[in-house]
Design a protein that fits this description.
By secondary structure, this protein is mostly helical. It has helices at residues 7-26, 30-33, 41-59, 62-75, 81-109, 115-134, 148-154, 159-162, 165-178, 187-221, 223-241, 255-280, 283-298. Helix content is 74%, strand content 0%. It is globular and about 50 Å long.
Amino acid sequence: MTTTFRWVLWASLAAFALALAAALIADPALLVRATWHGADPLWTVWLPTAAGIALSWVIVTRRQRQELANRVRTALEDHPIGAETCWLLLFLLCFVAGAVVLSRLLDAAFPPQAYVTAVPVVRVLFLFVLPILFIDRAGITRVGASAPLPALALRVNEPWRWLGLLPVAVCVGLVAVGVRDAHMPAPGAFALATLVTVVAISVPEEVFFRGMLQARLELLAGRWSGIAATSLLFVLVHVLMDPYNEIVDLAPTGSPHLLGAAVLTYGPLGVLLGYVWSQYGSIWLVILLRGAMLTLVVAPSVRIMD
């Protein structure tokens, strides 16, 4: 961990602790009543996070992990990491502000619930298209000699990096157990839910949060500082965006409960996704993991099907 940014890890952990403490003071029964989009967080978030991190830790050796970290560092050595990180944070702010403004404009002109079309468009624009175009060719979908990090994330040639499919399968299996009693929609509706969660949510968010932002924060502040800070931003964005969520509300019962529910669910999920990305450096794994987990949880009641 770099000395200059050593405080990032402790500041992120303190922010998580304070947010959770404030939510528990406002709602002492939060730990019992917390859900992740209506599902039991024990099976859909907490157990998958523990299992996914434990398995990934066992699978990847210290030497493999260090070699991957060196390759990421080399891929970004000519990049202005500080400036690019600032630009990414600006795009993140624009995503939240743009989604709120456009949702309200559309709802005023075309009520009700026109925001379900606004949020995906703004998400793809500010978390995917613009970062790819303006972060010095650092977009995760670009390949070639001029973009070694995207090539590293997309061209997974080492067999040990594909072993990440094992923790992904275990995590998804635990979520499937957790929602086994839920009434899943018809195949067509389930396919629509999958399309929304993977294409409109998982791809742009995982490319942005893990493939772009976390990769740079790890170089600036160290591995666990990068994971913690990215996870904190991941939580804050989902707290702010919950009223405009095109899928299912996280916690519609009030802001204290929403904050606590986000810390207890999107916090561990962000750490899981961040750790899987850091261990394997494969964008395919984090997109698959996020998309499958989210689809299983929200498919029974995804809002866009109303």
